[in-house]
Amino acid sequence: MNILVTGGAGFIGSHTVVELFEAGYSPIVVDDLSNSNASVFDGIRNILGKDIPFYQVDCNDFDKVKEIIEKEKIDGIIHFAAFKAVGESVLKPVKYYKNNLGSLLNMLELMDNTLAKKLVFSSSCTVYGQPDVIPVTEGTPLKKAESPYGNTKSICEDILTDTVTASKDLQIISLRYFNPIGAHQSAEIGELPNGVPSNLVPFVTQTAIGKREKLVVFGDDYNTPDGTNVRDFIHVVDLAKAHVAALNLLFKQTDKFYDVFNLGTGKGNSVLEVIQTFEKVNNIKLKYEIGPRRNGDVEKIYGNVDKAEQILGWKAEKTLSESLKNAWAWELKLKEKNI
């Protein structure tokens, strides 16, 4: 089965490419490299011992993506490609709506015009907004998103629901991620944001290695055990494996199909817990300070992930300590490569 992986040079995408290949699928990557780096393909090659087909194309370019789908005889799509920085989305909402909605609409139109009828969509726990009760389940009512980024994911899910309802043969799964962290155990691939990281862990590792002067914790006055935001941090390799499980389920379907799954560990850790665990497992003292809250941040969220275990046969296996060890090994590898 040939699987088109949009955004496949990114953090989650690259790890999913590896897991797809190891599960017997043939991944083909489309990525415009706007928030990723072509060097990731060296790491993938080192892990797999072979090159993965790669097209440097923007998913908003309908004609070029259609050409790739037809040329590569694509059987299914995993759609990661999207802008994802919460803070930036608050400042540049139009950029986020145009890209994130536009690229998905292109994929759906292409699915209608090609033989690729199966799609795994990269959604997010941000669709829950600030929930009244945690852990959230897939049945938790969706509240207003706290950021334009989160709202794009919510709107995309609405688009998917409507599209499958109207279709004859589309089969789609939305995966609501919590917070992916870590890196491949080989340290050949990991999180490599362009510019200043918007996610916590790469900021932690870059501060530890000296690329950043200090880490700022955005607020310590939240209603949480230590006052800092609480998130469900999941190892990126566990998350990648869930995409394989989702595809496996889609390829068993014969009629039109749509479902959503939470992907996380099922428990929350605070920002300070992450910092302290990183310091402990890597024997490093981190320079950080408390700053003001950041617009668009949810106070606390983690998910119930029973549905994914029961239906996908998947659950997260790696610990926070493993994730932070792997993330640090990846940062050390980047220093060795002068990246």
Automatic annotation (TrEMBL):
Provide the catalytic activity annotation: UDP-alpha-D-glucose = UDP-alpha-D-galactose
InterPro entries from the xrefs?
NAD(P)-bd_dom (IPR016040), NAD(P)-bd_dom_sf (IPR036291), UDP_G4E (IPR005886)
Q: What class of enzyme is it?
A: isomerase
Entry cofactors: NAD(+)
Q: From the UniProt record, give the pathway where this protein acts.
A: Carbohydrate metabolism; galactose metabolism
Q: Subunit composition?
A: Homodimer.
- Sequence similarity: Belongs to the NAD(P)-dependent epimerase/dehydratase family.
NCBIfam families noted in UniProt: galE (TIGR01179)
PANTHER family assigned:
UDP-GLUCOSE 4-EPIMERASE
- State what protein this is by name: UDP-glucose 4-epimerase
Tell me what organism the protein belongs to: Lacihabitans lacunae
Name of the gene this protein is made from: galE
